[in-house]
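Hey L., structure's done. Input below.
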Amino acid sequence: MSRPTRALIVDDEPHLRMYLKLILKQIGFTDFLEAENGQVGVDLYKEQTPDLVLMDVNMPVMEGLEALELIMQHDEEAVVVMTTSVASRQAVEQSVELGASHYIRKDTPKEQIIELLDKLIREIWEED
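Output:
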C-alpha cells in the first residue's frame, strides 16, 4: 500500500492548523482538508474520507472526542490522531477506547511530532 497523502486537520485555531499542515508536508502529505470544529470535521470526513485525521480535543460546537466517536462509527478503519494542549490521563484513555491511533500534545517538539507521525504511518501503511 502506498503512503497516505490526504489529511484532515480539525482544530479551532487557524495557526495550529497551519502548523500541523507544515509538519504533515514534511512527511509527504500533499492534500489537506481543514475544519474549525468537530462537527465540520465529521462532515468532511464522511464526504472526503481522508487517509489521516489530526483532531483537537477541545473545540466549540463539537468536542474532539465526540467527533472521534462519530468518525469511528462511520469508518472503523479511520486513522485519527488526537492533538491537545492538555493531556489528562482520562482524555488519553478515552481517546484510545474510542479508537484513536495516537495522542499528541501540541507542545511536543516539532521533530518529535514528525517522528511519531512518520512511525505511525509506517506501522499502519506497512511500508518496507
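The first helix runs from residue 14 to 26. The chain has five helices and five strands.

-- N.
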